[in-house]
Amino acid sequence: MPSPNKTTIKIYGIFAGVGLLWVAVQAYVVHSFGFNLFISGTDGLVCVILLSGACWLINNNLRYYQPGKGNYINIFFWCAALAGICTFGCRWALPFLSSGAGYSNFLSQSLVIRFIIYFLSIGWMALISIIWYSQIDQKENEHRKNEAERLARDAELYNLRQQLQPHFLFNSLNSINALIGFKPDEARKMIHQLSDFLRGTLKKDDQLQVGLAEELQHLNLYLEIEKVRFGHRLQTEISCDGKSGEAILPSMLLQPIVENAIKFGLYDTTGEVVVSIRAEMDGNYLIIMVQNPYDPTTTRPNKGTGFGLRGVQRRLYLIFARNDLMETHSNDNIFTTIIKVPQQQI
Prior knowledge:
Elements: H1 6-32, H2 37-64, H3 72-93, H4 101-109, H5 111-182, H6 184-203, E1 209-211, H7 212-230, E2 234-240, E3 248-250, H8 254-266, E4 273-282, E5 285-293, H9 307-320, E6 326-331, E7 334-342
Parallel strand pairs: 2-4
Antiparallel strand pairs: 1-3, 4-5, 5-7, 6-7
Helix pairs in contact: 1-2, 2-3, 2-5, 3-5, 5-6, 5-7, 5-9, 6-7, 8-9
């Protein structure tokens, strides 16, 4: 059986101290009516034992039964019944303390006061128990709700990532198929690169955050595959400032952004295209900017670019609960995607 925690021990200590104080006060009151210390102390001790048992019963019942709205009248009757039982217990047990008529008369005349004190004390215990266990239930409900939301969020993040991988895999396999006939060496190279990339992807499945250096290393595997596909037409520029080296970000966040840049930069043009990736720290944010040229007569980057960017924005919202961490701009035939990754919240 597990040992009680510190909070429980503290609560028991408080109740024990209150009980001893109650015994002392009641013994003093009874002693002030002219009875000796033995009778006074035993009177207080018996009353506190009976009251403690009643408080334990009401507390234990409320631990498993929380009255709903309109049923609080039941608590009133429970308190009255327990107060009556305690009063009856005093009336039955305490006359044995003294054979004289003085104490018996005192006991009979004090029964009403004892009942009222018992009722108020048990009522306070009931009120404290209701508040205490209601707070515990509320915290447990909040915990279950947060856990359910976390599981749903993780499931959606997983689904988003799973939607990205087949799209890239199919493109790569089609490129390998096209290279096999006239460039078998490059096809074999691309197969090895694809294998390394997918192996790295599997390693990242259990990682929610990775360092920027690791993310860029994985991104380079993807870019090497794409360079085999597009040859000299695809050029990349990657630059990071010194402070961004220790930054972390959600794993595989950059691939769909760069894939989007390649798609809308190369598919509608015949010349060389440079995709630029820059990372820098701005306060507590990692700022990553991806830029690519585009042909405004054949594409509409200002309206968004399909699943890739929507998936990234959705991931950022699920992780950080913010919709302002990604923005896109198009100017002078250059399409720019900027993401901000908070460093304190990860």
